[in-house]
Structure formats: C-alpha cells, structure tokens
Design brief:
It is a single chain. By secondary structure, this protein is of the alpha/beta class. It has helices at 18-29, 62-74, 141-144, 160-169, 189-197, 249-254, 291-308; strands at 8-9, 11-14, 34-37, 79-82, 86-93, 97-102, 107-110, 113-115, 119-121, 137-138, 152-156, 175-179, 201-204, 209-214, 218-227, 230-234, 237-240, 244-246, 277-279. Helix 2 links the parallel strand 3 and strand 4. Helix 1 runs parallel beside helix 2 and helix 4 (160-169) packs parallel to helix 5 (189-197). The longest helix is centred in the last third of the chain and has 18 residues, at 291-308. The protein is elongated, with a radius of gyration of 21 Å. The chain starts with 7 loop residues before the first strand and ends with a helix.
Length: 311
Amino acid sequence: MDNDNNLVYDFLVIGGGVAAFSAAMYAGRFNLKTLVIGEALGGTIILTDVVENYPGFISLTGLELANKIEEHARVYPNVTVENERVSEVQKIDEKPIYQVKTSTGKTFKSKTILFATGTEWKKLNVPGEKEFTNRGVHYCALCDGAFYKEKNIAVVGGSDSAAKEALVLTQWAKNVFIIYRGDKIHPEPVNQIKVEQNKKITIINHNNIVQILGEKKVNKVILEKPYNGSNEFAVDAIFVEIGHKPLSELAVKLGVNVDAKGEILIDRSARTNIKGIYAAGDVSDTEFKQAITGVAEGVHAAYSAYIDLGN
C-alpha cells in the first residue's frame, strides 16, 4: 500500500520517544514538513516510575514527561505522526531522497532521516531465561512488579537503572536482592543513598545467575558462586537490568557508521557519516544517556536538517 508518491517530507523521524518528539517539535518550529513514525509512542521512559532529573520538573512520571513532549510536538500543523513499525530505509535519489517502508506496507519519502530508534533490553542468555520470560523473568519493574507482593525478588545489574528498579520493587516485594558481578553497584549518589537506607534491599556482589529454575513459574536460581553456603537461591522473580542493545540495524543497512556496541556515531550536531541522516537518543554513541541528553540531540538533529536543507 503506497501513500501519495508525490509527497516528500523534509524531515522524517523514526522513533517515538522523547528524543524523537523533541526533534519533531523543533522541526515544526522550523516549518519543516515533518513525519514521525514510531511503533511504541512514548519510548522506554514511559516505563520509568519517577523522573527527578529533568530540568523544570522536580518530580513527575516518565509517562507524564513523554506525553508533555509529544503533545508539544503535535501542536505544529506541519508535524504528522504514524503509529507504525519501520521495516526498511533506502536511498532512492541522489538529491538525496530516502524511502521508508513500514511493516504494513506503507511507504514514505523524505529529504532527511533521524534515527531515534532507542534500544532494547539485553538478556542474560542463561538456561531458563527464555522459558520463564513473563513467568518470573521480567525487564520492567513498573510493568510487572505489582505481581510479586510480599515475594522475594532479584534484580540483576549494578547500574543506576538497576538501583532504581530495585527501589521501585520495594513498593511490593518482601525482599529485593541486587545481584551484581562487580565489586559494588554504581548508581547516582542520590540513589546509592536510597538503596543503602532501604531495609528491604540486600546487595550480593561478585556473583552471577547462571541458571533459572522453576515449575510453572520461577522459584529459584543457580548462582555462579555460593551465597550463604549454597549456589541455589530461592526467588519468586528476576528483573534483568544489565544494559541495552541499540536498535541501529536499519541505519547500518543504510551504511551509517556505528561503534563496537552498535551505537550510531554522531558529531556534536547529531550528524552521521551520511548526508541527510542523523541520530539522537539512546541509539547514538553519546556516553551519558539521559532523557535530557537525548532531547538535546533531537533538537540538534532538527536544526542540522534545517541548515542542510539550505535554510
């Protein structure tokens, strides 16, 4: 199913998170004919319980922040949104003109493309993980934590995200165990203090889960090293927070350069190695990945497109 083949957008954004809609908002202000195509509108931040590090808002939920930015972008009449999954991006003209195809067969054309495609959760890749996914193995505390009231829960990981997941889970859990392979977890200082002060949280360092076991649901894990004298450790659920994999495959097929982790390489203006192609947010190679940094990159991308289009 093709759309109007004569319609060529100035700026096409692939993604539906805060970086994507911030870019669209600025593109709208620059009077660029803009299309946002996103499968999961709102992005991963909508799974965040509390956001306390976005300037201008002392505290709000991730969903509230995402909705505010999306609503702002939609104010501009030259911004259109399609709730679709993009399956292919290709260059069809040397001007250049790019063609984007969705999984439902729709096609769109644009002079520039922004990849704000984000990431997906990394997996443990241990026996039992796949079999017990959504039956005790989860990747989002806000989504699934309430199913485990007064239960024992393990969080795997040592990042700030892992610490925040553990803190969210204490709303329901009897006990939360952070299992981390390193010497110590490394959240932001404010979250480190919250973890240390929460009596429900226990940290197990220098250890890994090597197998997940259960019957209909998870009931225990096998640890790499003994804990309290045993490698078997009884838990009712495992929440995995060991990082994210950038969703850069479409960009790679187009010839966009990525680093060893698969993150899209961008300059300070969000440009890639290909003319008319930009990247922003968690899919890019920016080291400090936060909503505010992704938003800034999206804004840079919109401005770069505005300039590159001859304005």
